[in-house]
Structures are given as structure tokens and as C-alpha cells.
């Protein structure tokens, strides 16, 4: 029989800055759930990836003096980037999608076209308040004190020709999904969605933009690029092969899957995403789980506030598993939690060093010391058990059921609480039996001591199996020390007392979780955070490396460069960057070109100048105005700042002269 299929996803991350501990929390949680389902023997597909389009990336790339693709490549694939971080954190994703991947772009274009053809996407004019950092449009009523309700920053008026998705059409069906099914969890988020977004009336959603170009082009309307959510949300199905030839897993039992997301994007995942799927006639997600935020001093972490916590520093200092464990153990999964280094160290010392670490090292050390690492056959049985034998055995044997209930209800923190109650009970059991006293008369008490140790090893094994999704590497080590063979590491064996062979080879190995010296560690962390804040020393002038890929001569000749004279130049209203040029290009008909260079030039200083333009690019709309070509500039970076100079040539050259 085929194993049950289980598909789980993280949000796809914006590679606009290095990822921090908040992103790590989200991915580790999803990884833990994926590993839990694998442990149960399910066929798991775990997807994560990056959301690489949009104006923010375009702007940041410009600031960095590189192309948007070069910019995202660096953050996704470069040293210390997203892929590196997931590797370090032992993330077991089966696929990694980048929204710039060709197959995804192809799917998004087809999806957009299908929704356009079925009448759910139509053309209109967008007027609204736009928050650039969040890439979100808001209505007046959604603003908080006139500012972006998500990040609290200033919003700006924006108006442009755009395509819209008929989200309003799906309001009733989405409301029904939210209120009458278990689709969205925790339940508290349902009310939030209905009250804040559905009840005020769902407005149609802007799904294309013309004011920037770093996005999936709308292939039937040049100048428009698909605006964030249709591009981003559909990744969950394009990664399976929906509307593309790259994969062939859509319709094969993976979808519908489980979307794990942070609370601020629940709105998009529980309203817009189902509505897009309704429009496409595809099955709705099985679940959307909205987890809370990791806060720092009660506030959101953000690069601009300079208060992000670097997971690399923590993993290096305390170990990947300890960090993974801390994230899952400390913060209830649906709620916000306050991160602090003190809390991290306290959790490591209490739970891992004192409770689990001690249990393993005491049990394996005593098995080595009193029995040379092999308990005698028959030690699993004891004819007249003490009440504490029965209590511990009962607690360990029933642990899997409680744990399962918690994991199935997306409460990994509770599952860990259950496991650690048993670990604490086991440590108490050591004291109740005082093995060191029993060992004084091995002839008389040897069999009882062996039974006590077997009970401890078996309890440790069961806990170890259930901790595997949280701390995969450390549990491997734990099994090696406690002698658990492969068939005693399975889900099935975790529900069965006695799966550990009585005579298993036990050996005390390295200390799994060393105690942390709190004061010293805090000082070191502070120093590391300070060092990370120091800006990297930048060279004064940086120029982009030359391209190594050759362009053939005929292709080069297809670009028509001409000398142009500036007849008029003005700033485009409501745009911080755009200048509009009216140019004499020698044809006798004025040419209009828009150029995002206001940062470097005032319009009046350019009138009368002789410049160079490429004149045979397809027309492009920006802020509702058409641009026919592009002015040529020279760019470099000066102390990290982008510098730009329009190419100005001798005024004696007539307008229209061809460059060749
Ligand atoms: N690109 C969008 C998601 C598109 S999904 C189709 C996005 N990216 S993000 O990089 O800004 O955030 C990705 C995830 O990280 C979100 O779920 C967000 O909640 C999570 N976190 C970012 N900071 C966080 C904390 N401080 N704490 C917990 N999770 C946080 O949104």
C-alpha cells in the first residue's frame, strides 16, 4: 500500500536582507513538523524557497549597483545566505523554489492568463495608499494612525493602471471556509480575519504594476508585471508542477497541503490564496497555520531598527540542535514570544544539560560501570515491581499518544512539555532507586540494578525517538550511546515498551548537551553582536565586473543607439525618482523617455544637453506615462553608494546621429 502523502510549506522568504532568528523560527518549526510526519512513515514533501520579485528588491539592487538577479543570487546562494542557513540548521526540505526560476515564471504567466480569460482578472486604475517596504496597498480605513498597519511606516498615495483580481466575488465562499471549517488555525485568527477584512467588505485586489519592472511580465500586456501575491502564493503549487513542465507532482496526492505562515501574512494565505484557487478551480489548502512572532524587547525585529538576532552566532555558540530545541520548546507555536539570550541559555541548562543530558550520561555511565556496557538478558522483567517502576513505565509507554495529539494540533511546545515531564520523572526514578546503593552488593542486588537501568534506558529511548524531529543529530548520538538499533528508533517502537534489546551495547559517549556558563556566554554574545554591527570596510570606488558571456555581432547591431538633445525635462508627479524627457532624436517627432535618475539630477540642469539613448526598446509604461527608449548612463559605486552619470556628448553632434 502507498504511504500517506503529506505536503508542508514555509512561506517563501524575501531575500532583501540576511535572514534572522525570526525566519529561522518559522523554518525550524515547519522542518520539525515535516520530520514528525516522516517519522510516522508518511511520504513527506517539504517545500521552502524565496520570494524574489518586487520593487523593494529592485531598489536594493540599484543601491548595491548590481542587477536584481545578481542581488538576490548573492543573498540566496552566496556565503551566509539563505541556502547556507538552512543547511546549517539541518532543514530537510525536499524542494527549494525561487520565484525567479524559469518554470515558476512560466506557471505564473499561465495562471494570470487563465484568470484573465475566465474574467476574474480585469484592467482598471489603482488609487490607494502604498507601503513600499511591505509592498502592500491599503485602503484609508485600514491604515493605523495614517500609517501602514503592518510596519507602522509612512504610506504614499499611488495611482496607476493595473489589473485587478475579483476578490470580492469570493467573499462569501472564503468566509464560509474560515468560519465553518478547520482550515485556519489557531482559531483566534479566524475572528481577526473576518472582523478586519471580510466584514468591512473585500475589495478587488491589485495584481499587476507598471511602476517597476522586476517581476513576472504579463505576457499579453507588456509594461505590466505581476504584482506580488499572485506570483508569491502560487509557488505552493508551481513547485509541484502546476502549469509547468519542470515537475510532475501536481494532482498526484500532494496538494492540498499545509501552509505554515507567520501571523502578518495570514491575511494573504487565508483569504487571497483560497480565492485564487477558487478562481482556478483547484482544491483549497488543507490548513493554514499562523504562528506568532519572536519579539525582541517586546517589539518586532527588523534590520532597520538594528535589532535582529543572528542565528549563525547562536548556532555556532550553542549548537544547532540546542537552538532548534529552544525555539520549539520555549514559545507556544500560535503566540508571540520574547526572545532573549538569557532565556536561551536557561533553557539549554535546565532542559538539555540538567534533565536530558544528565539522564543519558548517568544511565550510560552506570551501565558501563556496573555491567561493562551490557545488561544481562532478562533484565527487562521484574516479578514484583515497585510503584515507581510502574509509574515511570506507564508514563513512558503512554507518552507517544499524548505527543501525537499535540503534534497533530500544531502544538510542538506541548509535545516537548510532555516529553520533558517523562524525562524529569526518569531522573526522579534514579534517586528513588539509588543505584549507587544497590551496586554495593551486586550479588544480592545486581538483577534489580539491571532492571532499574533497563527501565531508564528504555524510557530514554522512547523520549529519544519523539525528540528526533526536534534534534535529529543529537538523537542519533543518543541512540548510539544507549544502544538502540534502527528498529528501536521508529514511530512504531516509540509506542511499545520493551523495543530496546535487553543486552544492547551501551557506552557513555561525549556529553550531549554541555552546561553553558551563563555570564561568560552572555558577554561573548554581546561582543559578537557588536562586531556584527560594525559596517564592513568598503572600497572607495567599485565597478561592476565585465560580463564574460559573449554577445554575437548581429545581436549587438540590433540595438539602435542615437544622439538625442533634451528639449524639456520635468519631474514625474508622485514619483521620487522619475524624470520625463522630451527629446529631439532627429526624426522631427519628439520622443518621450522616462528615466529614474532624479536622485542625481535636477530636471532644469539637463535641458539643452546632448545625450545618448537606445531608441528601439519596446515602449514601457511607468506611473501611467509611456517611455520610448532609455538614456545611457555610466554607473559605479562610491563608498557603497551608487553613483550615476548620464552619458553627455559633444553638442556639435547632431540629434539622430547613430552610434556604431
Ligand atoms: N515573501 C513573503 C511571504 C510570501 S509566502 C507566499 C514574506 N517574506 S518574509 O521574509 O518577510 O517573511 C517570511 C516569514 O518569516 C513570515 O512567515 C514571517 O512571519 C516570518 N518571520 C519574519 N520575522 C519573524 C519573527 N520575528 N518571528 C517569527 N516569524 C517571523 O512575508
Which percent range describes the beta-strand content? 15-25%
The small-molecule ligands in this entry are:
5'-O-[(L-methionyl)-sulphamoyl]adenosine
Distance between the amino and carboxyl termini: 68 Å
What is the averaged pLDDT score? 93
Counting helices, strands and paired strands, the structural category is alpha/beta
Q: From the structure provided, what is the oligomeric state, counting identical versus distinct chains?
A: single chain
Query: Which sheet architecture does the biggest sheet show?
Result: 6 strands, parallel
Write down how many β-strands occur, each being a DSSP E stretch of 2 or more residues: 25
| Backbone CA Rg | 31 Å
Number of helices, counting only DSSP H or I runs of 4 residues or more: 22
List segments where confidence is low: pLDDT < 50 over at least 5 consecutive residues: none
Described by the principal axes of the CA atoms, the overall outline is elongated
The residue fraction in helices comes out at 40-55%
Strand order of the largest sheet: 3-2-1-11-12-7
List the helices and strands and how they pair.
Blueprint: E1 5-13, H1 21-39, E2 43-50, H2 55-64, H3 68-77, H4 82-88, E3 95-98, H5 102-117, E4 121-131, E5 136-138, E6 156-165, H6 171-180, E7 184-185, H7 188-198, E8 205-206, E9 208-209, E10 225-226, H8 228-233, H9 235-238, E11 258-262, H10 266-280, E12 287-291, E13 294-296, E14 299-300, H11 311-318, H12 320-330, E15 337-339, H13 341-371, H14 387-397, H15 399-408, H16 412-433, H17 435-438, H18 442-467, H19 472-482, H20 491-494, H21 518-533, E16 541-542, H22 553-557, E17 561-571, E18 579-584, E19 591-595, E20 610-614, E21 620-622, E22 625-627, E23 630-631, E24 633-638, E25 641-646
Parallel strand pairs: 1-2, 1-11, 2-3, 7-12, 11-12, 13-15
Antiparallel strand pairs: 4-5, 4-6, 6-8, 9-10, 13-14, 16-24, 17-18, 17-20, 18-19, 20-23, 21-22, 24-25
Helix pairs in contact: 2-3, 6-7, 6-10, 11-12, 12-13, 13-16, 13-18, 13-21, 14-16, 14-18, 15-16, 16-18, 18-19
The structure holds 5'-O-[(L-methionyl)-sulphamoyl]adenosine.
Amino acid at each position: 500500500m502507498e504511504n500517506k502523502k503529506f505536503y508542508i510549506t514555509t512561506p517563501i522568504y524575501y531575500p532583501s536582507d540576511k535572514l534572522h532568528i525570526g525566519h529561522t523560527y518559522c523554518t525550524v518549526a515547519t522542518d520539525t513538523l515535516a520530520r514528525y510526519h516522516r517519522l510516522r512513515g508518511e511520504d513527506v514533501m517539504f517545500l521552502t524557497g524565496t520570494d524574489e520579485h518586487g520593487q523593494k528588491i529592485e531598489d536594493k539592487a540599484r543601491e548595491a549597483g548590481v542587477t536584481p538577479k545578481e542581488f538576490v543570487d548573492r543573498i540566496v546562494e552566496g556565503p551566509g545566505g539563505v541556502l547556507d542557513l538552512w543547511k546549517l540548521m539541518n532543514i530537510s526540505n525536499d524542494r527549494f523554489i525561487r520565484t525567479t526560476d524559469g518554470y515558476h515564471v512560466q506557471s505564473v504567466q499561465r495562471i494570470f492568463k487563465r484568470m484573465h480569460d475566465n474574467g476574474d482578472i480585469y484592467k482598471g486604475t489603482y488609487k490607494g495608499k502604498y507601503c513600499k517596504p511591505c509592498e502592500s496597498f491599503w485602503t484609508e480605513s485600514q491604515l493605523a494612525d495614517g500609517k501602514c498597519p503592518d510596519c507602522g511606516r509612512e504610506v504614499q498615495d499611488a495611482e496607476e493602471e493595473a489589473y485587478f483580481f475579483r476578490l470580492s466575488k469570493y467573499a462569501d465562499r472564503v468566509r464560509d471556509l474560515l468560519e465553518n471549517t478547520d482550515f485556519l488555525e489557531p482559531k483566534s485568527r479566524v475572528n481577526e480575519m473576518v472582523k478586519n477584512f471580510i466584514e468591512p467588505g473585500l475589495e478587488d485586489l491589485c495584481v499587476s504594476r507598471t511602476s517597476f519592472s522586476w517581476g513576472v511580465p504579463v505576457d499579453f500586456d507588456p509594461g505590466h508585471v505581476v504584482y506580488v501575491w499572485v506570483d508569491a502564493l502560487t509557488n505552493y503549487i508551481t513547485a509541484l508542477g502546476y502549469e509547468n513542465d519542470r515537475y510532475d507532482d501536481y494532482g498526484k496526492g500532494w496538494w492540498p497541503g499545509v501552509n505554515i505562515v507567520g501571523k502578518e501574512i495570514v491575511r494573504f494565505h487565508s483569504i487571497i490564496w483560497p480565492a485564487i484557487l477558487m478562481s482556478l478551480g483547484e482544491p483549497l489548502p488543507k490548513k493554514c497555520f499562523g504562528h506568532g512572532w519572536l519579539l525582541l524587547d517586546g517589539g518586532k525585529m527588523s534590520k532597520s531598527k538594528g535589532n535582529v538576532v543572528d542565528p549563525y552566532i547562536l548556532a555556532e555558540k550553542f549548537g544547532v540542535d540546542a537552538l532548534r530545541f529552544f525555539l520549539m520548546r520555549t514559545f507556544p507555536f500560535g503566540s508571540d514570544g520574547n526572545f532573549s539570550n538569557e532565556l536561551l541559555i536557561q533553557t539549554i541548562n535546565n532542559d538539555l544539560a540538567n534533565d536530558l543530558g544528565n539522564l543519558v550520561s548517568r544511565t550510560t555511565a552506570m551501565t558501563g560501570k556496573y555491567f561493562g556496557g551490557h545488561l544481562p538478558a532478562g533484565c527487562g522483567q521484574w516479578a514484583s515491581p515497585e510503584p515507581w517502576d510502574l509509574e515511570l513505565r506507564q508514563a513512558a509507554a503512554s507518552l507517544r499518544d499524548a505527543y501525537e495529539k499535540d503534534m497533530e494540533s500544531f502544538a510542538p511546545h506541548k509535545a516537548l512539555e510532555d516529553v520533558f515531564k517523562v524525562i524529569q520523572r526518569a531522573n526522579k526514578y534514579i534517586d528513588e532507586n539509588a543505584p549507587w546503593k544497590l551496586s554495593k552488593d551486586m550479588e544480592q542486588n545486581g538483577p534489580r540494578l539491571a532492571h532499574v537501568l533497563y527501565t531508564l534506558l528504555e524510557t530514554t529511548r522512547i523520549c529519544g525517538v519523539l525528540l528526533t524531529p526536534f534534534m535529529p543529530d543529537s538523537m542519533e548520538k543518543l541512540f548510539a550511546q544507549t544502544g538502540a538499533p534502527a528498529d528501536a528508533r521508529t514511530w512504531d517502537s516509540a509506542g511499545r515498551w520493551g523495543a530496546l534489546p535487553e543486552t544492547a551495547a551501551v557506552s557513555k559517549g561525549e556529553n550531549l548537551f554541555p552546561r553553558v556558563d551563563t555570564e561568560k556566554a552572555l558577554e561573548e554574545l554581546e561582543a559578537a553582536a557588536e562586531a556584527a554591527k560594525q559596517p564592513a570596510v568598503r572600497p572607495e570606488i567599485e565597478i561592476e565586473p565585465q560580463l564574460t558571456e559573449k554577445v554575437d555581432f548581429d545581436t549587438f547591431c540590433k540595438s539602435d543607439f542615437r544622439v538625442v538633445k533634451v528639449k524639456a525635462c520635468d519631474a514625474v508627479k508622485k514619483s521620487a525618482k522619475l524624470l520625463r524627457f522630451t527629446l529631439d532624436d532627429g526624426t522631427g517627432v519628439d520622443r518621450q523617455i522616462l528615466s529614474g535618475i532624479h536622485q542625481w539630477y535636477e530636471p532644469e540642469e539637463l535641458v539643452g544637453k546632448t545625450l545618448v539613448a537606445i531608441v528601439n526598446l519596446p515602449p514601457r509604461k511607468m506611473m501611467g506615462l509611456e517611455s520610448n527608449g532609455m538614456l545611457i548612463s555610466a554607473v559605479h559605486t562610491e563608498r557603497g553608494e551608487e553613483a550615476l552619470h548620464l552619458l553627455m556628448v559633444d553638442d556639435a553632434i547632431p540629434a539622430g546621429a547613430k552610434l556604431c
